[in-house]
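> tool_call: predict_assembly(chains=two)
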Amino acid sequence: MPELGNLALAIALILAVYSIGANIYGARRNAPDFIVSARHAIWSMCAMITIAVVVLWVALLRSDFSLEYVASYSSTTLPTAYKFTALWAGQQGSLLLWAWLLAIFTSVAAFQNRRRNPDTAPYALAVLAGVAIFFLWMLNFVTRPFDLLAVIPAEGTDLNPLLQNYWMAIHPPSLYTGYVSASVPFAFGAAALITGKLDDGWIRSTRRWAIFSWFFLTLGNIFGARWAYEVLGWGGYWAWDPVENAAFMPWLVMTAYLHSVMIQERKDMLKVWNLSLIGLAFGLTLFGTFITRSGVISSVHSFTQSGLGPYFLSFLIAVTLAYTGLLIFRSKQLRSPAEFESYLSREAAFLFNNLILVGITFAVFWGTIFPVLSEAVRGVKITVGPPFFNRVNAPLALGLVFLTGIGPLIAWRRTTPDNLVRSFAAPVAIGVATGILGAVAGLRQWYVLTAFSLGAFVIGTVLVEFRRGMNARRHMMNEPRAKALVNLVAKNNRRYGGYVIHVGVIVAFIGIVGSSFFRTEVKKSVHAGDSFTIGSYTLRFLGFSEVDTPHLASATARIEVLGRDGREITVMTPAKLFYVRAQQPATLVAIRSTPVSDLYVVLAGIDDSGKTATLEVFLTPLVFWLWAGGVLMALGTVIVMWPNVRERAAIATVLSRSSSDPNELADLVGPGGH
Amino acid sequence: MNIRPRFFIGAGLIILAIGYLIGNAMRTTSEYYLTVNEVAARQSELGGEALRVAGRVKPGTVNWDPNTLTLKFEIVPIPELDTGTAPIKPVVATEPVSTEPISFSVVAAGEPKPDMFAPGRDVIVEGKLGAGGVITATQVMTSCASKYKPKQAQ
């Protein structure tokens, strides 16, 4: 079986190389046969990598410890679901997953572009195959998933206990999907540069890919935060660790990209900027993998170092140089005749939103690589911790939130003062009222007051927009309220889905602010019967119960939670786990979540006599809303991506007349504000 | 009317503001990240500075008092960090490693003992170096027992 995996990966590499040659030859010599052949090669490459993935999965499920990978990341007692997810627990498997996703997306892109984009698609597919070659090279020659052990162990060393968690089952694939799908818009951008077809065709052809990528990057980040919150047991969800930053930076850049491409589509501006952003997003996905896997930057998540760093760094540098070279080569053709006209325009709001997003990205990047830089330059490693990132990003976040309210309501080109008053009077009133209410309720931190006011302002602008649209439909179409609202969203899904995403971002932001500013914490060692209070809760430690299985031993503390009136609310059961195979302890946090605050109880320690428990209890207000905001963002993105009936009908009618690009048509009928 | 310069002013102001925020935050929040050997070499100049030290928990030195939540232990150098097996050499070896093993006492009060904390494990200690080579830690982080094996590249 492992031979089959190795063989499949070797053939996949050959096919990837062949597809590049066939695509470029076919495009240059105008030989459609070669283009078709290249497409088939890409699909076959995808089939080969799929075989490799299946082989590894089968080996994991059968606990075939003759494979080094299986012996390192699985065991006979590992629950079946986690044997499945062990595919991406280690380095070789992660890279295999990456290559597989890339092959799948490349195949889909090849299918979509059977007839579309005949000039650029072969080059875009060649770029994607080039990226695939890098990963297949690694899998074939550097970090091989199917290496055998000389001595077959009777038992595997098991999956890292921290990864035996359902969030960890879905977080890496989500993040990787987001990472890898960003290569498709990148490849089409590169193809535009190579061929000199520098209109916005590449943007329109890959808009759905960009949104798809953003969707999964969002989910990946939220799932990762949720995992940290539930598993790491320090009461927080984000620590600005290099690995977290690596996941966050592509998200920031993709967010900027999704906004700035709208300017190019409407105004034919910012061509260089958009091409740079997508290049940056792609580069950051590689950079993310590089720092996670290389150990160059010490992270709590990946302490050990692997030999992969130089390979990734070389590839990253090669890609950056080639892409920058192309940008410089085409720079004359990328000049845009259009100009910004007014600060009071949507272009301006988007431009500033882009600057801030890229600024945050730079700050995060700077803080992440600073230890390496300072060591190279000054010979001493200097790190910056979470305070650095918080201090820089907190004010920038306020600026972004403000622009989130302004951008969608302000007109393209320029806005009249009249228009401003009409659009913003009510939201500003809502924002100010929220601020005053907060101050009256006793909030004193200026940051919190500003954040809540601005948040309310943005939600106010969205409400105004929904109301305006709904009323227009009610009057014009004579629809009742609810129907008007549903139709409004269904018929203008890109625009109103975007608003839902904005609300999600704001809600998550409020959750972040609340949980960062108002968290309280009690640490205590207690005997059975002892009680203590946190906030309005009284906690009483009742005692331990213990369970032993061959896979896992656990000690669970029973803690009675009483409300202010002394009545029992619930019994919480945080636990200490011990994974037998890995010989590793872990913590099972108990969380009682409400929209107001989360009660978060960690059994931090049990003393040797087995009578005393060390408890760490956090009361974190509003953290609920971070997750709620995440759900809203996901929901909004689904609305945006939802196939629009009107759009499809319009595409169908126009397609029957000509063979234009459906995405282009989608844009014609998409509303998105004028 | 000349519009473009006006936009450069706006964009420039934003960029300056971001630059200022980064510079300011760097000044107030950066801390040295050192190995145990480096702390030993620079001990005299590090008194009172914010530090992050990567070291290994010396077996037999761990003392944990759950009642006061006080953890005391000694850290010794992590050999791998100082021998330069890493792709980018993380340490400038300022002195030959002496035969007398270098170690520092760490006292962390008010924090529970981390899960993975055990003798022989690698930890990152955040805190300040005080008199007598005692590091008063605000945080002790254990590294994930990440199993990514350093496969020697040819």
